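Explain the record.
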Amino acid sequence: MSAEFRELLKKVGSGTHTHKDLTREQARQAATMMLTGVATPAQIGAFLIAHRIKRPTGTELAGMLDAYADLGAKLNTIPHTSYPLTILGIPYDGRSRTAPISPITALILAYHDIPVLMHGGKTMPTKYGLPLIEIWKQLGVNLTKLTIEKAQKLLNETNFSFLYLPQHFPLANKLVQYREEIGKRPPLATLELMWQPYQGDSHLMAGFVHPPTEKMIREALQLRGIEKFTLIKGLEGSPDLKLGQTTIICVNNAEKEEGYEYLKIHAEEFNLSREDVELKDYESYYQELHKLLQGQQSTLSDSVILNGGFYLWRCGFSSSLKDGIDTVRDLLNTDKLLTKLEEIKTVLNS
């Protein structure tokens, strides 16, 4: 048993009226002791559920991210790039109700020479949704065996890469079992949205569900000196923009006194569908993905157009959201995304 960790546990777990928030350094220590196994399983489980009940603060999340930065893998700066690396913060427990769009968004960005990094794990509690790693595998891209050197090479040569939790951050992967055992998503799930395993100039584009989470993320990023961010109230907590509802987005803006502003994106303004694509079964979803890549009309097309257009605009490639959307409309009439996918496969298998 760690007596030092027990004192931190007592702070967050003392009850509604007597608990205390951790300082940034204390949160870093707590996360480090959980990741490295200094804390016992009983202590880790107790901390995670107590921290969830108390609710984390932005300061605590910043400290825990410090531990992730200390212990997790990192990719190096890409040579000869005109854009910051886009890091997609997507819930690791996947999707269960709506079709994921982010893998196609990543291909669109990479095709336009905007480097993009995704990260995630395998099928994960408590949602057990469709994870990113399985989608890429169905596209012929097996990312589970990447060494960190090969992940760097893939990024340098194709503008796309992926960090796989069991392979590149096994310390964090060991904590996944606690999600099953406590039956809830702990605050660690918020860290996954914010993790930036890259040493160069980056742009975090992360999803969220609840407004308090967006506020905590903003506070944590500010403490860690992160200036470029886009926080999207997207489908199932992902950074996929919605067709069926107005998408609320928080973006950094140094001209505003608060340092940020909110955008509202309406799909109907661009003559796009008002219905998000349901994830009825995986096989049908994969079929629609392949149709899209081959330049054919797909049920995913409108969602891809909205998301791809927004990301091209937000990343600085397009001068306006409309221009970004027009660019993606034209792109989807070709098989250029399929060519980009084949390029990724070639480098991966070389």
The CA atoms of residues 76 and 199 lie 5 Å apart.
